[in-house]
Amino acid sequence: MPAYGDEIAGNASVLAYTDEVREKTDHLYAAVADFTPELEWRTLAPYIAAINDLKKEKNAVILAHNYMTPEIFNCVGDFAGDSLQLAKEAAQTDADIIVQAGVKFMADTSKILCPDKTVLIPDLGAGCSLAASISGADVRLLKEKYPGVPVVTYVNTNADVKAETDICCTSSNAVEIVEYAAKEWGTDTVLFLPDQYLAKNVAAMTDIKIITWAGACEVHERFTVDDIKELREANPGVIVLAHPECPPDVLAEADFAGSTSGMSNYVKDNQPKNVVMITECSMSDNVALQNPSVNFVRPCNLCPYMKKINLPKILRALQTMEYEITIPEEMAVKARQAIQRMIDLPLTRQSMYNHQNAPEVAATESRASL
Ligand code: 13P
Ligand code: SF4
To answer: Are residues 331 and 184 in the same domain?
Structure first.
């Protein structure tokens, strides 16, 4: 049977659990002990020690998304958070190298914000179904069809799409950004791309008309109303938290909906007895570790792209400086403006999503209809 490094990183060599490794990592074990038997820890710890050594040597930081597995999130990540928090950290870091423990659109965002830094993604296959759903050419056609309508795009997009964007958003600020864009551009309508479900969930929270795109997160669109009903039946009194990339009828069944950090803060502030997070699997693991008195019911869907990132690949990225993100200068300049506008906006609250109003959008566009 192949060992951890071979199995996961292909050609990475398996590292030994030596006394030196033990000394360097013992203090980190407590953070993940609930999920990591000691035997497994002995395979992870050598990678953790080697990654943390190399970070110091090369002045590198690791930005870890909330969907990273607990050993990445807790033991090698320098900053952890949702897409918005990671973008803000990238903009502020004085490290020379950023390793994105997340997916490629997040690495693109870091590179766009930090053109002079080396930005690495440990696996180029760490994509995203939302980012893959739309291109810059699609956005140009939409702009021709809807002249004067501001373009708000979710950060879950590639650089060519961001370059055609007026202002970016994440799920934690989408409602406020849509209202800001309509006011700034003097319109009552906004193009909100490419997540049709997030668009509908935002539309339920604002009077601004929203035109969207037929994109979806393949992880969150799989959750159904029946899933939630079954969960409630099996776990009476359970509090249901959902990510706003889920379809609107799923959100309508939830007790609270918010970005990954919004859900994490909800648990921290309310300490529910029993909770379920309708989102990617690692999220519950990470939040459970931070809230030991909360019981987590754990149905979840894995994001195959997020799960491409693991310790051996992070180590390999730091050793070989692969895979480096590059973005053509002209595209990066335009994309930076859209991201920077979002970062600079003084937002006073996180977007909350509930469904007192029926969620509606003015139109859902797709390639076929352009
Ligand atoms: P947030 O962390 O911004 O909520 O995004 C979730 C997500 O799907 C990222 O891929
Ligand atoms: Fe993309 Fe969904 Fe995976 Fe996030 S969870 S990276 S939105 S496919």
So the answer is: yes
Ligand nearest to the CA of 302: 2
Question: What is the 226 CA–ligand 1 centroid distance (Å)?
Answer: 23
pLDDT at 84: 82
Q: Which residue, judged by its Cα, is nearest atom 6 of ligand 2?
A: 128
Domain presence at residue 353: no
Show Cβ contacts of residue 259 under 8 Å, excluding neighbours closer than 6 positions: 82, 83, 84, 170, 171, 172, 243, 244, 350, 351
The range of the structural domain enclosing residue 40 comes to 4-128+305-320
The CA 262 to ligand 2 mean position distance, Å, reads: 17
pLDDT in tens, 340-355: 999 999 876 677 787 6
Tokens 């609270």 sit at which residue?
256
pLDDT higher than threshold 70 for residue 113: yes
Contact 103, 122 (CB under 8 A): no
Same domain, 141 and 97: no
What's the 16 CA to ligand 1 centre distance in angstroms?
35
Q: How far is ligand 1, taken at its centre, from the CA of residue 82, in Å?
A: 6
- Residues with Cβ within 8 Å of residue 94, at least 6 apart in sequence: none
- How does residue 359 score in pLDDT terms, banded at 50, 70 and 90? low
66 lines ligand 1 (CB under 6 A): yes
Question: Residues enclosing ligand 2, CB less than 6 A?
Answer: 103, 128-130, 156, 217-219, 245, 280, 303, 305-306
Question: Could you report the per-residue pLDDT of 222-232, keeping only the tens digit for each?
Answer: 999 999 999 99
Q: Atom 8, ligand 2: which residue's CA is nearest?
A: 128
Do 120 and 200 lie in one domain? The reply is no
**What tokens does 137 get?**
């050419």
Task: Examine residue 277 and state whether it is found in any structural domain, yes or no.
Answer: yes
Residue located nearest, by CA, to atom 2 of ligand 2: 217
**Percent of the chain clearing pLDDT 90 (strictly above):** 88
Q: Strands 363-365 and 151-154: what pairing?
A: unpaired
Q: How close is the Cα of 259 to the center of ligand 2, in Å?
A: 12
Q: What pTM did the predictor assign?
A: 0.94
